[in-house]
């Protein structure tokens, strides 16, 4: 999942997908978000949030906590340290790629 920022084409394919990148980015600026928060922020379907959040959870990039708010199920996501590092590496890769194609 990791790549060397010196190799701009070695992007982390796991978070390169737009929904997963959006989830990781949203969680990077919020302590936590519920399933509903993510679905609304990303303007996507329940299935998209569920499938992509699960892939991030399986990779150790996010944690998922399930609880009840009264009788209503509540699913809450948080970015892990590993997820934050993956996002930082991804951003470094993108910057390296931009520098490389821009000739800087």
Question: Can I get a quick summary?
Answer:
This protein is an alpha+beta fold and 104 residues long. The chain has helices spanning 13-16, 18-29, 35-42, 46-58, 81-102; strands at residues 33-34, 62-69, 72-79.
Figure out the total of helices: 5
Question: What amount of the residues lies in strands?
Answer: 15-25%
Distance between the termini: 27 Å
SS content category: alpha+beta
Low-confidence parts: none
Strand order of the largest sheet: 1-3-2
Q: State the total count of DSSP E strands.
A: 3
Overall body shape: elongated
Would you kindly provide a written description of the structure presented here, covering whatever features stand out?
There is one protein chain. This protein has 104 residues and is of the alpha+beta class. It is 57% helix and 17% strand. It is built from 5 helices and 3 strands. The chain has helices at residues 13-16, 18-29, 35-42, 46-58, 81-102; strands spanning 33-34, 62-69, 72-79. The protein has a 3-stranded antiparallel beta sheet with strand order 1-3-2. Helix 2 (18-29) crosses helix 4 (46-58) and helix 3 (35-42) packs across helix 4. The radius of gyration is 15 Å and the shape is elongated. The two termini are 27 Å apart. The model has no long low-confidence stretch (mean pLDDT 90).
């Amino acid at each position: 999942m990791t790549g060397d920022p010196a190799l701009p084409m070695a992007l982390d394919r796991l978070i390169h997908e737009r929904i997963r990148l959006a989830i990781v980015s949203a969680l990077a600026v919020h302590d936590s978000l519920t399933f509903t928060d993510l679905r609304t922020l990303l303007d996507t379907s329940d299935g998209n949030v569920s499938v992509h959040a699960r892939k991030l959870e399986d990779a150790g990039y996010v944690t998922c906590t399930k609880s009840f708010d009264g009788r209503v199920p509540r699913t809450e996501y948080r970015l892990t340290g590993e997820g934050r590092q993956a996002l930082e590496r991804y951003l470094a890769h993108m910057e390296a790629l931009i520098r490389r194609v821009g000739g800087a």
